[in-house]
Write a structure and sequence with these properties.
There is one protein chain. The protein is an all-alpha fold. The chain has 4 helices and no strands. α1 crosses α2, α2 packs across α3 and α3 runs antiparallel to α4. The radius of gyration is 15 Å and the shape is elongated. The two termini are 15 Å apart.
Length: 95
């Protein structure tokens, strides 16, 4: 039995790109809602400094999850995917 931690990609898990998230969200809720949600979560007027793709995706997921429609389900699913990716990545680097 090996104690080596597998990488997220070895589990078949990848971090989705921003384009993939927007495309999937558009299929689910339409272009207008998807674009609005994305712009709201990645507000360029906020001076938050540089942030990683994981943080941006989690912000998007959090805002979407607060919705009471199907976009909320998408947001919760996205949060699980990104948090799982982060956890696996962290476990691998700390092992």
């Amino acid at each position: 039995m090996s104690t080596e931690q597998l990488s997220p990609s070895e589990y078949g898990l990848t971090l989705p790109s921003e384009a993939e998230v927007i495309a999937d969200l558009m299929k689910l809720v339409g272009a207008d809602v998807a674009i609005f949600a994305w712009r709201e979560a990645s507000n360029p007027d906020e001076d938050t400094g540089p942030r990683g793709n994981e943080e941006l995706l989690l912000r998007i997921a959090e805002q979407l999850a607060a919705r009471s429609d199907v976009a909320g389900v998408f947001g919760r699913s996205l949060a699980v995917r990104v948090n799982t990716y982060i956890a696996l990545s962290t476990a691998r680097t700390s092992a």
